[in-house]
């Protein structure tokens, strides 16, 4: 299977997919998309992903988009090691944690949202407050869920779908100066997962397009 990942080093949605591919032990070619330069909105990239967002994964010439859809595809085609527990209610709990990040935090803080806020005259300081607010709001819901279900990772003692989403979101939260005081379970789960080789290799600093300065 030939895999090509269109990714951007610091962007959290492609970071989720890098973790997932690494957890499943799948090698892939990395193709950088320069989000700051607007490459995602250019004709060439839109021919790959008409939504103009990263990631896109090309699997033997077939394009896949949306990080959670890609992670679910990975789970279906490479079931081991599993991203999801066996029990359907447990699976729903893991998906709920992933969705808090992917559906309720990230879309409010995406680059294009920042651009839109800026165009409406919202200052950089207020945009930072906006980002922190929505990350904190989502983390307030995630904290008790991880405290309840976690056993080192978000759910139990093995990394899964929720960790693929949490670790990039925690990276972003730290970048934007979110206060982790109220979130000890989130911080501990992200630290534990971050030390796992699959997560470490997916870290933004280790990507070929990482800015070194
Ligand atoms: N729901 C999508 C979100 C994709 C997304 O928003 N990607 C961001 C990077 S994390 C992006 O390409 N942003 C570029 C922009 O907003 O212009 C997914 O999970 O794949």
Layout of strands and helices, then pairs:
Blueprint: E1 3-7, H1 12-23, E2 29-32, H2 43-46, E3 56-59, E4 62-65, H3 67-77, H4 88-109, H5 111-119, H6 124-149, H7 161-175, H8 184-194, H9 197-202
Parallel strand pairs: 1-2
Antiparallel strand pairs: 1-3, 3-4
Helix pairs in contact: 1-3, 1-7, 4-6, 4-7, 6-8, 7-8
Bound molecules: glutathione (GSH).
Supply the number of helical segments.
9
Query: Which small compounds were modeled alongside the protein?
Result: glutathione
What spatial order of strands do you see in the largest sheet? 2-1-3-4
- Count every beta strand, where a strand is a DSSP E run of 2 or more residues: 4
How would a crystallographer describe the biggest sheet? 4 strands, mixed
Would you identify the regions where 5 or more consecutive residues have pLDDT less than 50?
none
The Rg value, from CA coordinates, equals 17 Å
Number of domains: 2
Topology order in helix (H) and strand (E) letters: EHEHEEHHHHHHH
Quick recap of the structure?
By secondary structure, the chain is of the alpha+beta class. It is built from nine helices and four strands. The mean pLDDT is 97.
Q: What structural keywords apply?
A:
9 helices, Glutaredoxin, 213 residues, Glutathione S-transferase Yfyf (Class Pi), Chain A, domain 2, 4-stranded mixed beta sheet, alpha+beta, 2 domains, 8% strand, binds glutathione
Task: Write up this protein.
This protein is an alpha+beta fold. A four-stranded mixed beta sheet has the order 2-1-3-4, covered by helices on one side. The chain folds into two domains: 3-81, Glutaredoxin; 88-198, Up-down Bundle (Glutathione S-transferase Yfyf (Class Pi), Chain A, domain 2), CATH 1.20.1050. The radius of gyration is 17 Å and the shape is globular. The termini are far apart. α1 runs antiparallel to α7 (161-175), α6 (124-149) crosses α8 (184-194) and α7 (161-175) crosses α8. The protein has helices at residues 12-23, 43-46, 67-77, 88-109, 111-119, 124-149, 161-175, 184-194, 197-202; strands at 3-7, 29-32, 56-59, 62-65. The structure holds glutathione. The site of glutathione (GSH) has 15 residues, from α1, α3 and α5. Glutathione binds at residues 11-13, 35, 40, 53-55, 66-68, 102, 110-112.
């Amino acid at each position: 299977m030939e895999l090509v990942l269109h990714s951007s080093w610091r962007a959290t949605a492609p970071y989720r997919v890098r973790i997932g591919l690494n957890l499943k032990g799948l090698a892939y070619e990395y193709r950088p998309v320069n989000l700051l330069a607007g490459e995602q909105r250019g004709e060439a990239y839109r021919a790959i992903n008409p939504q103009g967002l990263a990631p896109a994964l090309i699997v033997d010439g077939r394009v896949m988009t949306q990080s959670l859809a890609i992670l679910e595809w990975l789970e279906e085609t490479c079931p081991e090691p599993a991203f999801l527990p066996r029990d359907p209610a447990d699976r729903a709990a893991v998906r709920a944690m992933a969705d808090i990040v992917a559906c309720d935090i990230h879309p409010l803080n995406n680059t294009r949202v920042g651009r839109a806020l800026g165009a409406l005259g919202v200052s950089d300081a207020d945009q930072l407050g906006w980002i922190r607010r929505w990350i904190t709001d989502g983390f307030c819901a995630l904290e008790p869920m991880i405290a309840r279900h976690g056993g080192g990772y978000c759910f139990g003692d093995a990394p899964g779908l929720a960790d693929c989403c949490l670790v990039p979101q925690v990276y972003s939260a730290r970048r934007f100066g979110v206060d982790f005081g109220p979130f000890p379970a989130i911080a501990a789960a992200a630290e534990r997962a971050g030390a796992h080789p699959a997560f470490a290799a997916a870290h933004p600093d280790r990507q070929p397009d990482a800015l070194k300065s």
